[in-house]
Amino acid sequence: MQAASTIVEVFNHQVKRYGSRAALRVKRAGRYTDISWHECGERVRQLSLGLIRLGLKRGENVCLLSRNRPEFMFADLAILSAGAVTVPIYATSVADDVAYIVNHSEARLLIVDQRDQLDKIKSVEDRLFGLEKVIVFDSVAAQSDARWLSFDDVCRLGEEADSATVQQRAQWQAAITPDDLATIIYTSGTTGQPKGVMLTHGNIMFVLRAVEEAFREYLSDQNVYLCYLPLAHALERMGLFAQLYMGSTTCFAESLETVGENLVEVAPSTLVGVPRFYEKIHARVMSAVEQSSPVAKKIFHWALGVGRARRLAQESGRRVSPWLALQHALAERLVLSKIKARLGGRARYGISGAAPLARDVAEFFGDIGLPLLEGYGATETCGPATMNRPQSPRIGTVGVPLPGVQIKIANDGEILIKGGGVFKGYFKDPDETARALRDGWYYSGDVGMIDEQGYLVITDRKKNLIITAGGKNIAPAKLENFFKASEYISEIIIIGDRRPYLTALITLNPPAIQQWAASQGLDDTPYSELVRHPQVRALLERVVAQRNAQLASFEQIKKFAILQNEFTIEDGLLTPTMKIKRKVAMERYADVIEAMYRG
Prior knowledge:
Elements: H1 7-18, E1 22-28, E2 31-36, H2 37-53, E3 61-65, H3 70-80, E4 85-89, H4 95-104, E5 109-112, H5 115-122, E6 133-136, E7 148-150, H6 151-159, H7 163-174, E8 181-186, E9 196-200, H8 201-214, E10 224-227, H9 234-246, E11 249-252, H10 259-266, E12 271-273, H11 275-290, H12 294-315, H13 322-341, E13 350-352, H14 359-367, E14 372-378, E15 383-387, E16 400-401, E17 406-409, E18 414-418, E19 425-426, H15 430-436, E20 437-438, E21 441-450, E22 456-461, E23 466-467, E24 473-474, H16 476-483, E25 489-495, E26 502-508, H17 510-519, H18 527-530, H19 534-548, E27 557-562, H20 582-588, H21 590-598
Parallel strand pairs: 1-11, 3-4, 3-5, 5-6, 6-7, 10-11, 12-13, 13-14, 26-27
Antiparallel strand pairs: 1-2, 8-9, 9-19, 14-15, 15-16, 17-18, 18-21, 20-21, 21-22, 23-24, 25-26
């Protein structure tokens, strides 16, 4: 769609082109139902006109606090098509964070999805100095406060708009340029106050066209996409925009907890996820195999070995022999296709981003015939800047630059990025903008290298690098992924900066631990007791020792602590995209860490 210069033009074009075809699918009353392009267009038009009648002005910021659902897209596009700016907020944000973003963005209008979000707003309303109206997607009972309106109320206002309002919207929409601000995304961050990343319509269109050029033969308007990562995050938001751009169908997962079930129901043609998503799938499969019969276990590992042999032959450019092809056909029928069926059975590849992917997880998916294409980018680059390609994936790398993107490595190893996706700056923060943007280059804060074939390899965040008391430089992310290859470990944080040796905080994988415990005659022991059980401790000591044996002495974990609970978004230890808030965790468990160095 080369003629379109904004995402609003893209959407309007697709509404006219596809009309009655399904743009979205959402589960209602136990089954997925379609929402047509025409219906999407009508809802966006109504809501947009309604917002203008409530006082929305061109260029104004509007906050959107919602879980993933069709109305999120309607609201986003309604704001954009009036020439205004969408400021998405994670639905899991605590009230204080919501208040900060609403105030910092100077929003007068706030759109929320459910009553619980409205209650969150009410708890801090005395601090929301500029907020004038709150719109709730779900119906709300009659309120004494006239500032609260339902989604349907605002759509009715739009339906009743006079010709002057309709004309005003058309003029504002026609005036949108690629340089105009489309969204301010406040980075969830692992430390400190979030920063508002300003992205333009041109940033969005650049990335969409770059992805189209890189993946052209794999994209079509017949694609089906499962939306489940938070739409407040650049990765999922760009995923949704990509479906609009292609004219394909977006299906909404009911929740994070039902993604496995929804995958089978909608059978997406492409998987997109963060590493934790793929790690959990891998752990579930391997845990189930461990509990299977000796014969089933042997068949599984044989099939996986055949898949690996075929993958390695293809990666090295060797011909797959007739014998290997025959073996692979049998392995596919007996084992590999059944694993892929749990993911819908239609996807030809998966995309992984937002955090480092463990090598053994990437190899597992490649071996079953569903290569994971790791990519790299940031909110500040409007999503992906580099990606592996389906025809030439290179495990252990985050691929090559997208068309039009330049990557270079600074003298200290920092990754610098230039291209049309690079953001405009941080909202109301010129100092941070000056630090991050220099001569058109975005200074990512990540450390990496470009290998001999031009693929980018990420080492770690600059601020995460460990320098031990003995002067050894260690990238913890690489080591953490190495230890997380164990099915029994859910998360691990390695500590050791300016310390004499490395230690670790470990959270367990409950299903795998409980299955192992049952095999040891501990099936009646509650999980809360298993975490502290001597036999579980001994199991983890064996796992750590086995991994340590493959490492240099300064890379080995000398002591570790098993934490009672997994890290969650709700307890403030994971970002909404399931990255560990390392600094928060180390502060919360400071006593545990110090005890490992005293003992």
